[in-house]
Write a structure and sequence with these properties.
It is a single chain. Strands 1-2-3-4-6-5 form a 6-stranded antiparallel sheet. Helix 4 packs antiparallel against helix 5. A hairpin with a 4-residue loop joins strand 3 and strand 4. By secondary structure, the chain is an alpha+beta fold. Helix content is 24%, strand content 34%.
Amino acid sequence: MAAARAHLTDGAEGPGGGEAPRPFRQAVAALEAVRPRPEVRLGPLPAPRRLAPFAYALEASVEVDGEELADGRFVLLHDPDGQDAWRGTFRVVTLARAELEPEMAADPLLPEVTWSWLTGALQARAVAYAEPGGTVTRTSSYSFGELAGPAPREEIEIRASWTPREGPAGAVAGHLHAWCDLLCQCAGLPPESGEGAAVVPLPQRRGPQPL
């Protein structure tokens, strides 16, 4: 559990100097055991310090043929006493972002469709959750002078959080799998064979698409 200790909010101990609670340690162990599809790369990330007594964070990227198609971060928060806004003792906080074609970015239904990618991924993984919330942001970046490019850069960003329903600590692994599915969908990858997926058209990204 060295990694769990390394990515607590303030080091190896909790607020009172004691060891992290067993449910949190078990949840972190479950997250560390997750092996997503080959295109997804997971790695540890320093956890936020003020959101909860205990936290564990991961960063992820989706890469195909050496090109990064999407990236984001996944944070698991734990407060043994619970928080009113969470309605539970755990909270998942995530970020996912990817570049899009201008035509897709201009679609007025993009925010609603993108949010459905998240809920669809959670449903496809059959994980129980509550109190979901978040934002979908689309941005256009224009370059000038020496950095001028042929077209503006269009990007989508999904910030979302939700409360995993109380259950075995290992069940949190399903939430990470669902978020990885979302990240892959933002990147434009088709679902893996034999796995469930949200029934929503995939976004079109710039550049060649994987076969």
